[in-house]
Amino acid sequence: IRMLTTDDLAMRVKPCFEKAGYTTDDDTLKKIAPIIQERIPALDEAPNMAGFFFKETVSPSLEDLIPKKTSPELALAVARRALDILETLPEFTHDRAEPPLRALADELGLKAGQVFGVLRVAVTGQTVSPPLFESMAIIGREKVLARVSAAVALLAGNKG
């Protein structure tokens, strides 16, 4: 898999996504191929790792949204503040999104991984995924904001 060109990998995983019930497009497959290439041990693992790219919405579990050693209230604060930050960004590139979210972690006294973990689960519905910021750029602003908003609502509804 690691020896394939990204275009070749994209075309080889396409039937795996379709078999798993996803409607794919070649453009998106070519964008995700380089970020899943190092992470999938076999072609048929691609839908498990990256199926969220082809879903309109994701359904993260409440437990997964709450980082270890934190509380639902803290996870909600992270999600709300991250949403505020994301709404102000002109684009979701690694260079634009990471610094303000890393600063949010410092401000809240958390590790960056805890903040990124809440976002990863909100955006992908998974605790393990391809790189977060690259994934957000591919998913697109509208869907990312909708998914983070849905996570905020889930966390807000389950407080207390």
Give a quick summary of the entry.
By secondary structure, the protein is mainly alpha-helical. Helix content is 65%, strand content 0%.
Secondary structure: number of strands: 0
Question: Beta-strand percentage?
Answer: under 5%
**Largest sheet properties:** none
Summing up helix and strand content along with how strands pair, one would put the structural category as: mainly alpha
Distance between the termini: 47 Å
Helix content: 55-70%
SSE ordering: HHHHHHHHH
Low-confidence stretches: none
Shape: globular
Number of H- or I-type helical stretches: 9
Mean pLDDT: 95
Q: Could you tell me the radius of gyration in angstroms?
A: 16 Å
Structure commentary:
It is a single chain. By secondary structure, the protein is mainly alpha-helical. The chain is built from nine helices and no strands. It has helices at residues 6-19, 26-36, 46-50, 62-65, 72-88, 94-108, 112-124, 132-139, 141-157.
Describe the secondary-structure layout:
Elements: H1 6-19, H2 26-36, H3 46-50, H4 62-65, H5 72-88, H6 94-108, H7 112-124, H8 132-139, H9 141-157
Core attributes:
160 residues, mainly alpha, 0% strand
